[in-house]
C-alpha cells in the first residue's frame, strides 16, 4: 500500500459504505510517522494536529514517543489536553472571547503545559491582566513574521517588541515561533536558500536577545514545506502536520518527502448525464475547493478524467469515450485530495480501513 498509487484501492464491504466518505489507512499513517522520525529527532518534533483532528491519530503519535504538539484552535487544544503529559502550543492569536476561553483552559488544567502566541503589545497586556486576575503565569511564544504577512512581528521589530512584553510579569516568554508557508520552491536547494536568507536575519536578532536575557529561548519554526531545512538546526523544533496523511498538493510541490497517502476519499458515479461525461457525488462540500478545479483532487486510476464543473454535491468530469461506454452508474472511485487539512474538517469521522475492509470509525473531534 506504499504510496497508494500503483495498485487500486480495494475495500470489500462497500455495500455498507456511504459516499462520499473519508477513509484512513492506519498502517500508512504509522509508516509516515516512522519516516518523519528518520528526518527529525523525536525531541525536536512538534506535529501540528490541524490536519488530523482526531484522538486515535494523536494516540499513534504518542505511541511513537511524541510529546510536543502544535494546534490552531481552542478545540484542538482541548483535545490535546485530554493527555496530561503533553507540551501544547496554540499557534494562533487569542483575542476577544478566545482569550478568555484560553485563560479558562489554563484554570481548568492548572498542571498543563499550554502555551500561546503573542504578536501585539495591547493584546499581550490584556492577556497579562487576565492571567493576573487568576494568579496565573502564562507561557507565550513571540510570533515572527517570516515574510508570509499573515501574523507575527517583523524581524527588525523583534527586539523592541521583546523589550515591551518582557515587562509583563504574568507572561513568561518561552521563545519564538515562525511559519513560512508561502515558501513553495519545488527544488529543495532553492527552497533552502530562501529560508536561510530570512532565518539568518532572525538568528542575528535571537543572539542579541538571548545575550540580554542570559538564557536560551525555544525556537519552533516551519511547517511541511520547510521542516527539512529547519531540522538541520539542532536547536529548532519542527512542526509539520500533513506528513501523517499526506496529499496530492504536497506530493507535487515537495517531491523530496515521499510520504504515503493515508487519507483517501471514497466516491461513486451517480450519473452519466451526457456523452463522455460522468457525475460523482464529490461536490465542494466533500473536498477542499480553494484551488482551481483542476487542482482539488487526483484520481489515481483515471488521470485522464478532466473535471469541468463542481457544485455543492456534484462533480462532473469528461472521460474518454472508450471508458465512458463501459462505466456504470454506481462505479466506485477513490480520490486523493490536493489539500487534506480542510478536507478532513468536512467530515465527522474517518472510516478506518484495514485488511481490505472497513474496521471501525474514528471521530474527527475538532473540526472547527
Automatic annotation (TrEMBL):
Keywords: Lyase. Belongs to the DSD1 family. It comes from Sphingobacterium humi. One of its GO terms (biological process) is D-serine catabolic process. This is D-TA family PLP-dependent enzyme. The keyword Cytoplasm does not apply. Residues 262-354 form the D-serine dehydratase-like domain. GO terms for molecular function: D-serine ammonia-lyase activity. It comes from the Bacteria.
